[in-house]
Amino acid sequence: MSSNPRREPLPPAESVVSISSSADIVTARQRGRALAAALGFSGSDLTVIATAISELARNIIEYATTGEIVLSQEDSEGRPGIVIVARDEGPGIPDLSRALSAGYSTGPGLGLGLPGVRRLMDDFVITSDAGRGTTVSVRKWLP
Amino acid sequence: MRVPILKQSQYVIASIQSALSDEELLQLRDDLARDVGRYRSRGVIIDVTVLDVMDSFAVRTLRAIAHMIRLRGAETVIVGIQPEVAFAMVQLGLTLEDITTALDLEEGLAFLDRQATAGARAVGMRAAGTRAPGARHVQ
C-alpha cells in the first residue's frame, strides 16, 4: 500500500510452535528464550521466561493433548516486552479460580502450573470455555 | 540423547549434556536405578549444570529418581543448579524437599565421601560393641 516510514516499528515477528509432544516443549522454550534474548532480556529473566513457556506447553500436553504456543513482541510506551500465548482446543477449565489456586491440580502435576506461571510473569490473562479450549496470554516487560 | 553415566569408585555420575525431553529424563531414571545395582554403588551424582530450565516435570522426576535410588540403598546428590534456575524454581514454588544438593561435582563427591565415612564408623562401633550417641543405624 505505502512504503514503511523509517520510524514506524516493524510488525512484530511472530513465531508459532505447535505443541503435541514433549520434544515440542523443549523447542518452544528454546525459541522463546532466543526471542527474549533478542529483545534484550538477560540472566534470570531468560530463565524465568523459558520456564513459564515450559509450564504452559506442558499444560497443553497434559490437558488438551495438542495446541500451540505463539511468541511475539509488544511495546508499551517504548518499553519492549515478550508476549506468549498458549492456545488449545481441549476440554477447557470448568473452575478457573480453583485452577489458579496453588496446590490444586486435576492432572499428574504438582498443581503449580498456572499459579506458578502467573508469579513468573508480569501480566497474565486466561480465558477458558468448557468444551472449547483454553487460551493463556502472558507478558513480561523488559526491566 | 541418552545421558552418559560414569562409574567412579563406589559412585555413579550422570552428567547431563543438553536440554532433556521428558522421555530422556525418564530414561535417565531407569538407567540410574539399574546402574546402582549393576555397580553396587553407594552414591549417585546428577550434574544438572547445563540445564537452563528446571520446570515442574524435571523437578518431580529428579525427586522420584532420588527416592528410587534411596530405596535401592544409595544416596543421590543433585549438583550444579545454576543461580538463574534456582531463582525461577523459587518463583514457581518448586522445591527438591529432602533431596541433597551441592554446588558442583567436587562438593557432591565430598558429601558422598563424608556419608561413606560416617556409615563405616557407625558400623565399626557397633562391631566393637559400643554405640556412639546419635549414631545412625546402618544395616
Number of helical runs of chain B?
4
Number of helices of chain A: 4
Number of strands of chain A: 5
Q: Give the tally of structural domains of chain A.
A: 1
Oligomer: heterodimer
User: How far apart lie the N and C ends of chain A?
Assistant: 36 Å
Residue-averaged pLDDT of chain B, rounded?
Answer: 90
Alpha-beta content class of chain B:
alpha/beta
| CATH fold-level topology of chain B | Transcription Regulator spoIIAA
Q: What is the name of the CATH class of chain B?
A: Alpha Beta
Task: List unreliable stretches of 5+ residues of chain A.
Answer: none
Give the number of domains of chain B: 1
Radius of gyration of chain B, taken over Cα atoms and rounded to an integer in Å = 16 Å
CATH topology of chain A: Heat Shock Protein 90
Provide the succession of SSEs of chain B.
Answer: EEHEHEHEH
> In whole angstroms, how far apart are the ends of chain B?
37 Å
Characterize the biggest β-sheet of chain B: 5 strands, mixed
The topology string of helices and strands of chain A comes to EHHEEHHEE
What's the overall geometry of chain A? globular
Please describe the structure with a list of short key phrases separated by commas or semicolons:
heterodimer; A: 143 residues; alpha+beta; Heat Shock Protein 90; 5-stranded antiparallel beta sheet; 4 helices; 5 strands; 36% helix; 29% strand; globular; B: 139 residues; alpha/beta; Transcription Regulator spoIIAA; 5-stranded mixed beta sheet; 16% strand
3D structure, described in words:
The complex is a heterodimer of chains A (143) and B (139). Chain A has 143 residues and is of the alpha+beta class. Chain A has helices at 22-39, 43-64, 96-99, 113-120; strands at 15-19, 67-76, 79-88, 123-129, 133-141. Chain A is 36% helix and 29% strand. In chain A, a hairpin with a 2-residue loop joins β2 and β3. The longest helix of chain A has 22 residues, at 43-64. Chain B is α/β, with parallel strands linked by helices and 139 residues long. Chain B is 47% helix and 16% strand. Chain B has helices at residues 22-38, 56-71, 83-92, 105-127; strands at 5-8, 11-15, 43-47, 75-79, 100-102. Chain B has a five-stranded mixed β-sheet. Chain B starts with a strand and ends in a 12-residue tail after the last helix. The chains are: A alpha+beta (143), B alpha/beta (139). The interface between A and B is medium-sized, with 27 and 23 residues.
